Amino acid sequence: MTTAFVLGGGGVLGAAEVGMLQALFERGIAPDLVLGTSIGALNGALVARDPSLAVIERLTDMWQTVASSREVFGDRPLRTVRRAVSTGTHVYSSSPMRRRLAEEFGDMTFEDLPVRFQVCAASIERAAEHWFTSGPIVPAIVASAAVPGLLPPARVGDEHFLDGGIVNSIPLGRAVALGADVVYVLQVGRIDRPLQVPKRPWEVARVSFEIARRHRFARELAEVPDGVVAHVLPARGTSDKDDSILGHRDFTSVTTRIEETYRASLDYLDQNVADR
What we know:
276 residues; alpha/beta; 8-stranded mixed β-sheet; 10 helices; 14% strand; globular
């Protein structure tokens, strides 16, 4: 029996995944395979390094530190405008995130992890979904989390990458293809949120992306073969305001998202997962 944790993308909403992980570990459910996209790649790397309840304290501390320091998206508005004008491609530097990841993981590689771990990113040159499965962890996470327009494309080797959410935001199908018998989907709540007709230019891009990501996930969920069980854990503590143009900077609800999702996920597991 192979149990997979699939951790989807979602920026600041990724705190909800911490609540799901806490519920899973408290119910004695641990992964044999971890797949991560974007913020799910970061959360997933910590889990693959320490697949136990002890990792929850580390994850919670990390999210609360980011919330208090705003170290990734904390530049002053004037600096972000200058960067956008000078680069033409992004408003934030990836250096703070890369630095923070290096402090956390150092030179750790995929091969060093006790649990099989893979990270999704979008290759620019090949216009294709790419899975990092070996080598250093930090460059893979940076590539997977290179949000278009916010962070610069990440170079790894001779290729450049953008956020994995572009090509596979919630990689359920990948877990099935790799032989998972039971898949726990850790998503950030957007799949449940009704979409509204866009009224502003930036809303057009967001809604278009949401349609694409949700369509793929819904299709993969419908195509889960007989003999494979997929559990989509419930996310809580999110709302429409998280999708605003400045939503990526709002870390004020980190604790609420973790706690509310933890309680909802415990209820779900107690009602739907009998054999633990």
